[in-house]
Structures are given as C-alpha cells and as structure tokens.
Amino acid sequence: MTLFDSAAFEGHEGVHAFFDEKSGLKCIIAVHSTARGPAAGGCRMWPFPSADAALEDALRLSRAMSYKNAMADLELGGGKAVIIGDSRTQKTPALFEAFGRAVEDVGGKYWTAEDVGVSPADLMHARKTTRYVAGLTGGPAASGDPSPVTAEGVFRGITLGVRRALNRDLDGVTVAIQGVGHVGAYLADKLHAAGAKLVITDVNDEALKAVAARTGARVVSPGAIFDAEAEVFAPCALGGAVNADTLPRLRAKVIAGGANNQLADADVGRAVYDQGILYLPDYVINGGGIINVAGEIRALDRGEAFDPAWVEGKLARLMETLDEVLDRSKAEKRPASEVANEMAKARISRAAEQKKAAA
Ligand code: NAD
Questions:
Q1: pLDDT at 277
Q2: Atom number in ligand 1 closest to CA 204
Q3: Are residues 108 and 192 both part of a single domain?
Q4: Same domain? 152 vs 280
Q5: Is 317 inside any structural domain?
Q6: Using one digit for the tens of pLDDT, what is the confidence trace for 258-281?
Q7: pLDDT higher than threshold 80 for residue 2
C-alpha cells in the first residue's frame, strides 16, 4: 500500500511522520480535518508490526475523531497520533519529550491526549516541549480521568435507548456489559443505582470481582456474554464486539456501550438494523470523554480553569443529537450507523465551506 492509495487516507489534510534517533521515537500524526477547529485526538503507543500498519491505524482513527468531535458539537477537528513501540518496555521521558516536539512541529493544528498505551504521566513529559497537550494530571485546566464522563453519556444513552425500544425505565432491565475497565465499571455502578440487573464479563478477574461485589452482577465467561439473557448489550472492551458470528447470538433489543468501533463493518450495521435491534452509534454515545478533554483544551486556550458546567452543557447537547440520529433512523428506515456518518460528514463539510467563505 502507498499512502495515497489507502482508503483510509481519503479526506486527510495532512500526515506527518517523525523519527528521533536519540530517543528512538517513531511516530505518525494524522490530521484528518481542521474545518471545525484544531484537530484533536489521543496518542496511541502500540507495537505495530509495520509502519504501514501504524499508518493505517492513524488514518482510520483520525477520521473517526473528526466524526466524533463533529457529533459532540466541539470546535475541534479530527486527528490522531501513533507511536510505534511497546508501552510496557519502551517508554522513557525522552521519548515523550521528543513526541511533544513532534506535536509542536505540527504548529497547533493538532492537540494530543492519552489513548491506549499512553498515560497522563507520559503526557506531562510531552508538556515540557509542547503546548498542545490535554489530559494532564496537574494545573487548574486539568480535566482528570475522562472515563466517568464517558460512562455518564453511555448511561444516559442506554436510558434513552431503553425508553425508545422497550418503553420503560431501567428499573428491572438486564444489561450485559462486556468489559468492566474504566468506563464499564463506572457504567455498572450507575446502572445498578438505577435498578438495572447486570450480567458482566472481563478477562481481568480482579476487575470482575470488584464490580460484582458492589453491584450484585452475575459474572459470565467472555465467550458467554453474547448469549446472555439481557435486554441491553453494552460493549465496553475492544472494537468489533458485534460481528457476523456474535450478532445472531445476541438476545438484546438495544446495543449501547462505551467501546469504539463496536460494529465489525458496515454490513453488520445493516444486519443489526434488519434484526430489529436499536443500535446507538458508538462514537456518538461515547463522546463524553472527548468533551471532557475539549473542556481542558478550551481552558488552556483561554488561560482559565476547567469548567465542569461547560462539559455538562455539551453532554446534554450530545444526548439530543443521539436522539436526533435515532429519530432520523426510524423515519428514514435506515441503520443509525449510516445516519450518524452522514450527519457527521455534513457537519464537517458545512464548517469547511464556512471557513472557505470567511477566508
Ligand atoms: P480499559 O482498558 O480500562 O477497559 C477495558 C476492559 O475490557 C478491561 O478491563 C479489559 O480487561 C477488558 N477486556 C479486554 N478484552 C476483553 C474481552 N475479550 N472480553 C471481555 N473483556 C475484555 O478501557 P476503557 O478506558 O474503559 O475503554 C473501554 C472502551 O471504551 C475502549 O474501546 C475505549 O477505546 C472506549 N472509550 C473509552 C473512553 C474513556 O473515556 N476511557 C472514551 C471513549 C471511548
């Protein structure tokens, strides 16, 4: 594959590759769109088998961030950074300082934050060499762990989905949660407090035990979660949970969770719809985390303190957008995943036209 042939390249404004011999940094920063504002998206550190694989991931993820930020009504475009390396053995302060220099080189067109393999502590090293970093642990603008806000959005989304699909509230409804890590555990607590019954799974026994002890959840094996007798399936682990193998096994009437890329592909989105399951598009329902990060970017930009009320306003607006996606899906008899993609693209194109007209 060459860069320009990749289907994932489509629409990208820029792709930047950096190599720092001294620290060993090899990273790619993909900027999909700055139409709505500077591109924002986390930095992932992963032992990619090749530079092509890293590039493909960076491109795919940066475009997804454009869609997510547009649906969250943020004045931010989409971008993503990937560092090629093993986060368990290859992290050093010098590596993240070099990464900060790479971000700075992009000249404010890209804001970074944490993602898989990168922690707030790593970002504090990047902060020494760039302004364009959020998700920090200290200072008045710091937004803290985004997971509780992500979980709150997913909780509200599930409430909305259950009302729409089953015409009831959460009391007595059974929710099957795949993955009780950061987002899944907060979500389990919220659902339990609302009277929902829980079936949970994880590959991490400690996390499972802690959540089960707090919520009375029934624990099942990772493979059995797809067969659980539950009205809602909430993927909160890795991508691709809903695929051609798992979909026929699901009993749920609603799919709504925190994980990114829940549908293995667009065909599965169509199959979910044809099977009469209400799917709440992942990058809409899980937008709470990036809203929280955006709150920090806004505070840093303005030299102000982080404002939780601004975050709450955006989260409430996100839930209205989610409702609009589901309304349109119903009215137009089309999968919600298709409707969300179309709305996100339209929001980005509109911003690009306005920017062009203003130039
Ligand atoms: P996390 O790593 O804390 O939690 C994921 C959990 O899934 C872990 O406990 C892990 O053991 C478990 N898991 C992994 N493979 C599994 C399997 N096959 N079966 C069952 N459990 C499995 O991550 P997180 O921050 O909670 O994020 C969860 C998902 O939500 C990810 O897809 C992430 O990209 C997405 N997301 C997170 C946020 C956020 O604010 N943290 C925001 C948006 C999207």
A1: 97
A2: 11
A3: no
A4: yes
A5: no
A6: 999 899 988 999 999 999 999 999
A7: no
Q: Which band of pLDDT confidence, cut at 50, 70 and 90, is reported for residue 1?
A: low
Mutational pocket test of ligand 1: of 186, 208, 236, the residue with most ligand atoms within 8 Å of the beta carbon: 236
User: Ligand 1 pocket test: which of 44, 187, 203 has the largest number of ligand atoms within 8 Å of its C-beta?
Assistant: 203
185, part of any domain: yes
The verdict on 188 and 102 lying in the same domain is no
The mean pLDDT value for 59-80 works out to: 96
Q: Residue 219 has what pLDDT? A: 98
Average pLDDT, the chain: 95
Question: Is residue 293 very low, low, confident or very high in pLDDT (cuts 50, 70, 90)?
Answer: very high
Pocket of ligand 1 (CB under 6 A): 146-147, 150, 178-184, 201-204, 207, 222, 236-238, 258-260, 286, 289
174 shares a domain with 217:
yes
- Are 35 and 103 contained in the same domain? yes
Tokens 């026929």 belong to which residue?
Answer: 248
CATH number where 26 lies: 3.40.50.10860
Give 116's contacts (C-beta < 8 A, 6+ positions apart): 42, 44, 45, 46, 87
* The pLDDT value given to residue 6: 78
Q: Is 190 a catalytic residue?
A: no
Q: Which of 22, 26, 68, 80 is catalytic?
A: 80
Question: What pLDDT score does 221 carry?
Answer: 98
Count structural domains, the chain: 2
219: containing domain: 147-285
Q: Are 204 and 181 in contact (CB under 8 A)?
A: yes
Query: Which atom of ligand 1 is nearest to 183's Cα?
Result: 26
CA distance linking residue 117 with residue 57, whole number of Å = 14
- Non-local (6+) Cβ contacts of 224 within 8 A are 201
Count other Cβ atoms within 10 Å, centred on residue 240: 16
